[in-house]
Amino acid sequence: MANIIPIDSRKKEKVAEDTAVTQRVAHPTSIIKLTAADDCSPFSARTDINLFAKDSANPMTDNVETQAASLTQPPNKLTNQPLSLPYSQALGQAGTRADLVVFGEDWGGLPSSTQHLIARLSQHYRVFWVNSIGLRQPQWHRRDGYRIVQKLLAAVSKVHPRDDGSGSNKANATNETHGTSNQASTLNAANVDGKHSDYCPIIIKPLTIPAPQGRLARLLANWLLLQQIKPVLTRFKVVNPLVWTSLPTAVDICQALNPERIVYYCGDDFSALAGVDHHTVSGDEERLVAKAQLILAASPALANKFPHAKTELMPHGVDVSLFRTASLRAPDLPKDGKPIAGFYGSLSSWLDYQLLFQVASHLPDWHFVFIGNIETEVGALMALPNVRFLGARRHEELPSYSQHWQVSLLPFRNTPQIQACNPLKLLEYIACGRPIVSTEFPAAQQWPEQVHLVYNAGDMIRTLQQLRQSLRVASQVDLSQHSWEARATSLHHLLEQI
User: Fold this and answer.
1) Residues 374 and 253 in one domain
2) Domain-located, residue 113
3) pLDDT for the residue numbered 447
4) Helix (H, G, I), strand (E, B) or coil at 437
5) Which of 94, 161, 252, 463 is the most exposed place for a label (fewest CB within 10 A)?
6) pLDDT per residue as tens digits for the range 249-284
7) Mean confidence (pLDDT) of the chain
8) Considering the domain boundaries, does residue 488 fall inside one?
9) Rounded CA gap, 396 and 322, in Å?
10) Domain holding 72: CATH number?
């Protein structure tokens, strides 16, 4: 495990910040279009920003009602004292939230750890969320073609794309994600005054070159992003923002925004992650690590990759209330009295389908239920009569499944990616209180009372048979220190000190 030095021990004296507002930037395209969410649930967006309508002289500043509301700051949960917000002071707006620009997956499509954290940080920061710029170049197949069409439609539409639960709004995500949905309603720009949702992010949906290779391609991609992002920040009088990225491919644009500080949140081992351009992303990550002032790692294995002096361990959290509150049983779960072993998440190459086929074939008196998009070939598993693939479900619907099946599954292959991962669903499974059967990986080893580790199909078969003899709800674990609220409080403390 990395010898991670607490951020308090390396706190630096802050220099005086420039309070001048950045000069307005001319833009070759046109007026921005704004939409606002009907409400501000953790995965709703306050404002969508679009940059592709033709207009006149000062396109990025003429037709938008600026919101610079002065908000009373809540007390710091760590000290019970009013928060000090140095970035907002740098804007000459003491008492308002600081500015935070975030590069992540598409907001509202799949709730990653970044979305969970940023949603809870938004009471302290005015968040500008930039939708996914990609981790690989598109290929000539149907899925990528559909993704390109989605991006183009999002760029020219006033309404945020809605994920209807089919998973069609999936971002270029990593193994830390599963499903949710979001719908935004169209509002006149002049009516976007913050009264609908003061603490929801402003969403920017850019077009660019995903994972550019070569100096010329990187320069062009960076220029395209600047032309779409910088005018928005200028219009909202953002100066020297704190910049957060969960994507190494954002390294160039992060630096181009003249950030106060750069934070890199690493939730996966990108050198081993399926579905990314490994050579390009690894090079980008190396440059990002050199530029970032703070690196957050989701697991000890990931933390060990980075310089100890500026790395902090930030494991995934859990929405304790959502997964502990009793939910009605999902109507499409089998109801014939046989026990159910279930899994939710992306059905990708990191699952061990051969193991699952052997287990399900040997246990015809069990149901095996899988929730999520099928991202790879699942082999003969699909044809088994006791195996059901239910498709994607919204995040808030997941407890209606995982609280009512008898065993939760984590059937991962033994790969470098899995050895470094800390899946979101692990704590969610624990919160639901059902026994967990998992193949061996470090994050699962930390919960020996809740997780039954198996090493092959025979182990899993025996474990499921034993559990069937004494199926009961697992003992409740105090997860308050692992909640997203607790993680966000610790994170805010870190961000205030860099």
Assistant:
1) no
2) yes
3) 96
4) strand
5) 94
6) 999 999 999 999 999 999 988 777 766 777 788 889
7) 75
8) yes
9) 7
10) 3.40.50.2000
Same domain flag for 313 and 326 = no
Range of the domain at 458: 320-469
Q: Tell me: do 307 and 364 sit in the same domain.
A: no
pLDDT by residue (tens digit) across 426-440? 999 999 999 999 999
Residue 262 pairs with which residues in a beta bridge? 243
pLDDT of residue 29: 29
Same domain assignment for residues 488 and 444:
no
For the sheet containing 340-344, what is the strand order? 387-391, 367-371, 340-344, 407-410, 436-439, 451-454
d(CA 405, CA 344): 12
139-162 per-position pLDDT tens digit: 555 554 555 455 555 554 432 333
CA 303/CA 309 separation, integer angstroms: 11
DSSP state of 249: G
How far is residue 364's CA from residue 349's CA, in Å, rounded to a whole number? 24
Query: Do residues 123 and 161 share a domain?
Result: yes
Number of domains within the chain: 2
Nearest one of 241, 209, 186 to 33, comparing CA atoms:
186
Q: Terminus-to-terminus CA distance in the chain, angstroms?
A: 23
Does some domain include residue 37? Answer: yes
CA angle in degrees (0–180, nearest 5) for 80-115-223: 115
- Which contacts qualify for 423-426: CB closer than 8 Å, 24 or more apart? 423/175, 423/176, 423/316, 423/345, 424/112, 424/113, 424/176, 424/177, 424/178, 424/316, 424/318, 425/178, 425/344, 425/345, 426/316, 426/451
**Spatial CB neighbours of 290, under 8 Å, sequence gap ≥ 6:** none
